User: Which sequence fits this backbone?
């Protein structure tokens, strides 16, 4: 871990946005979640909200992925100007629905196929995954590290809930776990290089506590104070809270406009080029009959 390069630091405004984000996730499966595989999921939904309102939402229902975004709120939260519907060129087509905050839908299989084609090189082999034996050994290494380095305490809550706190020094926990799994490095897929102890020498070793809340034997909340990881932070407390509750059944929103991947890719390209001022006569360039850019005489 190292300090960010000049210009890569988070601005106060963006840090404020991050601290106020709320992620709502629900998953529907034909089996209990703990026993579910990829083919068992029949619906899922994610909504990201800030203090100013909902930023974006997507749902996967049946054969389609549904998406909507509040571009104005998203632009304000990011501190970046985004084009309005009026600014989009005719080539943007149905993409204008996205910038207008309306629901659109995309065939999920078509989307996955397009992304795979964009990311794959000719003749490339599928990325290898961890085999079951290596996964089991990694889990055993994690359990051993937790047993040695993490201190657990339990207490009863006022509402009949049970609280379990797990406390451990951050750098020690990470380096101990890496030490446990380093002998397994040869079994990891290519490109998965483990960081060295030197990479974590500047990481804070402050004790970080995770608080787990259980009710009727079921986990309902996990909270961690992330400010402990920043030794010189001005903020005294930055809480990350994850709450588990009864979900809802994701449903396909009515009136969603269907987009195809060619329309999306072409629309985004046209929108961004128009926004950045490309292909403009004032820049001294023009587009010839074959679509190439040439400098004007």
Assistant:
């Amino acid at each position: 871990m190292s300090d960010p390069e000049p210009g890569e630091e988070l601005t106060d405004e963006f840090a404020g946005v991050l601290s106020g984000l709320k992620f709502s996730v629900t998953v529907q499966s034909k089996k209990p979640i703990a026993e579910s595989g990829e083919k068992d999921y029949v619906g899922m939904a994610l909504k990201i909200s800030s203090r100013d309102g909902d930023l974006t939402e997507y749902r996967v229902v049946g054969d389609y992925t549904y998406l909507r975004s509040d571009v104005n709120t998203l632009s304000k939260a990011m501190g970046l100007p985004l084009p309005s519907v009026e600014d989009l060129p005719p080539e943007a087509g149905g993409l204008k629905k996205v910038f207008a905050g309306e629901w659109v839908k995309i065939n999920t299989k078509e989307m996955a196929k397009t992304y795979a084609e964009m990311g794959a090189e000719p003749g490339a082999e599928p990325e290898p995954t961890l085999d079951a034996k290596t996964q089991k050994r990694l889990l055993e290494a994690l359990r051993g590290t937790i047993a040695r380095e993490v201190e657990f305490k339990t207490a009863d809550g006022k509402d009949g809930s049970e609280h379990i706190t797990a406390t451990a020094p951050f750098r020690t926990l990470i380096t101990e776990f890496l030490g446990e799994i380093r002998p397994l490095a040869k079994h990891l897929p290519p490109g998965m290089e483990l960081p060295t102890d030197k990479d974590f020498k500047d990481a804070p070793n402050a004790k970080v506590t995770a608080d787990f809340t259980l009710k009727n034997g079921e986990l309902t909340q996990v909270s961690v104070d992330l400010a402990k990881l920043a030794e010189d932070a001005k903020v005294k407390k930055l809480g990350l809270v994850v709450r588990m509750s009864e979900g809802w059944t994701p449903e396909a929103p009515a009136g969603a406009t269907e987009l195809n991947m060619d329309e999306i890719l072409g629309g985004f390209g046209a929108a961004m080029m128009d926004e950045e001022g490309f292909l403009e006569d004032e820049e001294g360039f023009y587009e010839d009959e074959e679509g190439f850019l040439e400098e004007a005489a």
